Amino acid sequence: MRIGILGLGLIGGSAALALAEAGHEVTGYDTAPETRAAAAATSIEVADEPAGLRKADVAVVAVPIAAASRTASLFGPDRFDGIVTDAASVKGRMREAFADHPRFIGGHPMAGKETAGFDAAEPGLFRGRRWVLCLEDETELGDWIALARLWTSIGAHVVPATAAAHDRAAARISHVEHLAAAALTLIADEPLSRTLAAGSFHDGTRVAASPNRLFEGMVEGNRAEMTEALEHLAVELEDARLGLYSFGEQPDRIVSWFDRARRLRASWPPEPGEPQALEITREGLLELGTAGGWVESIGDSEVATVRRPRVKSNP
User: Fold this and answer.
1) Using one digit for the tens of pLDDT, what is the confidence trace for 148-161?
2) Separation of alpha carbons 12 and 122, rounded Å
3) What is the mean pLDDT of the chain?
């Protein structure tokens, strides 16, 4: 399959390297000359301009959310008749930007690093990782299947979901974590605290080192869901504050709060159940995604090999 990738940073570059390694014909473009030069030294063919990507069967847009509208014009239906997908962390915003393209399917790989750029790209970045692939009322099921085959060919596990369901979940498991990481970093802004900081600080604040443009895109595109998630976080922190305040009289209150979180965290990540065959239908795929399941492969027929999470016993 011929793949065109716009944006060769961490995600776009990793996808390009993985797809080329899997035997696909990959052409990429990036606005930075040094990135184009670095990509050209690999197995990726590099276009001189974005228009060079329009010969592809699939166009992958791996640019910041702020560039969505401008990018949509590059791959408008009058200029590109192939499948268009993206890799942004907010799906509703991208769906709006590409509303005029009948073959746009939103996507989001749940993988990344705190470092960015083509130098940080690696072909194995998505292996065994979840890749959300949006399935809306207007989505052509055949196009969805083609993309699912593409991403599973590089080892990703494809999770079907609507853009709205994705954005709600992403706010709770990714976007609000950036807010919390920044807050934890800010309250430790004193010499002794920074010297003593170790594993807990490192793990809890890692994403605070992410580039600003990543967080700006989350805020621009998913502000409402982030606000709701932050309100839920505030409720939990207030419950913890009251537990600390009343510890002398009610020691079990804060202990119970910690224990509830400990049991939930111990049950993550979900343990995969046994492989199952699923006849591909829109309803069946969305039910699979809602249940936390994923597609691991799709053969020549329209039957997918899927897994659903097995419920762990809480220790």
Assistant:
1) 999 999 999 999 99
2) 10
3) 94
CATH 1.10.3660.10 for domain 167-266: yes
Sign (positive or negative) of CA dihedral 170, 264, 130, 160: negative
Which phi and psi (to 5°) does residue 65 adopt?
-60, -35
Over residues 200-240, the pLDDT tens digits come to 999 999 989 887 877 888 888 899 999 999 999 999 999 99
Q: Has residue 262 got a pLDDT over 60?
A: yes
Model pTM greater than 0.85?
yes
- Whole-angstrom CA distances from 183 to 93, 99, 187, 219, 249 are 26, 36, 6, 16, 30
Q: How far apart are CA 101 and CA 78, in angstroms?
A: 9
Architecture, CATH, for domain 2-161: 3-Layer(aba) Sandwich (3.40)
Q: Give residue limits of the domains in the chain.
A: 2-161, 167-266
Q: Measured at the alpha carbon of residue 207, what is the angle toward residues 165 and 28, in degrees to the nearest 5?
A: 75
Q: How confident is the model over 1-11, as pLDDT tens digits?
A: 999 999 999 99
> How many angstroms separate the CA atoms of 295 and 306, rounded?
4
Q: Using CA atoms in the order 64, 69, 75, 79, what is the torsion angle rounded to 10 degrees?
A: -160
Output the six-digit token pair for 139: 């989505």
Three-point CA angle 140, 142, 148, nearest 5°: 105
The C-alpha atoms of residue 218 and residue 88 are separated, in whole angstroms, by 9
